[in-house]
Amino acid sequence: MRIMYKRQVHNSTAFIQSLVANTNTTRLATQSSVERTRKKASKASLKKKPGKWPKEKIPDWLELNDTFNKHYRKPTNFDLNKVNRFFNNAKVKFEWCVSKFDDIPGQKRKDSSLHQESDNDISRKYERENIKHTTSINSSPEVIFLGGTNVGKSSILNNITTSRVSRDLGSLARVSKTTGFTKTLNCYNVGNRLKMIDSPGYGFGSSKGQGNVTLQYLLEREELVRCFLLLAGDKDINATDNMIIQYIHDHRIPFEVVFTKMDKVRDLDKFKKKVTSSGLMDLPALPKLIFTNSLTSSTSPKRFGIDFLRYTIFQSCGLIS
Ligand SMILES: Nc1nc2c(ncn2[C@@H]2O[C@H](COP(=O)(O)OP(=O)(O)OP(=O)(O)O)[C@@H](O)[C@H]2O)c(=O)[nH]1
Ligand SMILES: [Mg+2]
């Protein structure tokens, strides 16, 4: 499946012409035009930067997690402490990285034994279907992070596995400003209890092959218990996001929604309206909405929402009620 943002392609001839025109202008610039440019630049620098939260009014993002998840039981402090203790102390190790679904260790063997099964062995097939998305018997349950390129999937993995007391994120998964940086499915084993899968993003900077391996993983991986779909808090939910939501919904793949980069949200009311009108809360699957920021700054001094996300992961793996 090829998923691409609809981007406006500029007219290259006009673009080159405008470059040439600009070059000429620069060459022929008179003293007065230089003055004008300088004045413009100094005016622009005087313009106020788009509003940052005043220190005394930093929003409590945690309140958002409560507001938008009213139909779910709020985790107790005891639950949150238990889950935090696990993630703060668990040994995390990189387990595999694949660009083809069949290359996942053990997957090919599983598939070939599946083909050998006689057609009338319906009960085993039924049993396997029931196991899928609920629990795993021999291997640890897996959760996957999905989302557009650059939305913060690799960062959220580092966020989850970094101790709450540490200010800087660990560097388990590689993070980059470059769009489409993660190119394979990457699996991390957390304390031998569960596995977290980082995935290549969809949209700009992605490729058909990357999309295919992710979709095949979603449809066929028996160990998968929950998808976490990431949406950037500071951006609009776009057509590709909606397509993916529709896809995982139609294929009955259990999922939750994680808003990332909440530190970049400047207008909380506008943000709340965006979420309310997105239709996410009206989906029959009732995904949880989790609001997070993986980077901290003076106006977003904590990694908000990570407790709730960790708790939801733990819960989806059947490790807490
Ligand atoms: N301000 C802010 N920046 C973030 C946050 N999370 C991630 N970023 C930045 O966003 C950029 C992309 O982050 P990644 O974690 O690599 O995103 P990704 O979804 O894995 O990207 P691809 O692998 O390219 O699909 C990096 O520059 C991160 O530092 C966040 O919560 N707040
Ligand atoms: Mg990545």
TrEMBL record:
GO molecular function: GTP binding; metal ion binding
GO cellular component: mitochondrion
Region called Disordered, residue ranges: 30-52
Residues in EngB-type G domain copies: 139-319
Record Pfam families: MMR_HSR1 (PF01926)
Xref: PROSITE patterns: G_ENGB
Record InterPro entries: EngB_GTPase, G_ENGB_dom, GTP-bd, P-loop_NTPase
Superkingdom of the source species: Eukaryota
Start-end of Basic residues biased regions: 37-52
Residue ranges of coiled coil: none
Keywords: GTP-binding, Magnesium, Metal-binding, Nucleotide-binding
Protein name per UniProt: EngB-type G domain-containing protein
Organism: Saccharomyces mikatae IFO 1815
Protein encoded by which gene: SMKI04G5380
